[in-house]
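Re: weekly structure request thread

Next one in the queue (172 aa):
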Amino acid sequence: MRGIRSSFIRVLRKRWFLGLIFLFSLFYFLDRTLNQIPQDLTYQISDTVLIEPTRAGLEIRVETHNRNVTTCRNSGQGRSLIVDEKGYVCQWQDMMPSGCCDPTAVKTRHYTCRGCSNNHCCAVYEHCVSCCLHPERYGSVKVSSLVLMQRILFKKSHPGKNLGTKTKLPND
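Done, posted below.
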């Protein structure tokens, strides 16, 4: 037992082994640091989100005050996707300094309803917002689940924390 322990300690003291551990640690650190997705970006939404109960569930109406913008407000909510106020859905790395999605990026989609059913329920929040911003659909979208309301009002990672949206409920 003592011989195994001493030979193991000798291997640990060799420079090539220490260099190998250092290089592995350096690559691991760089990979985690450079591929990190921003988690605490705050975003400001000055649009009004109206949530009205209907027979089918909820009706959400988004009123955008300024359609011709040079800087964009974006969802800042997803781990890999964001949606800007122009209806573009893109990955975090495709977001321009203005906060807008880069429309020339390969994976950027405009007014995408991918994953949305005929009754306007979407599997991905960012796709739901993008689909709702399409001029033909803009104004009324029926949502059949209260889960979407919770996702709009609260971050899952920080329950109870307000996202900064102005929310008007009926009769307010």
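The chain has four helices and seven strands. Helices lie at 2-13, 15-34, 125-132, 146-153.
Next request, please.
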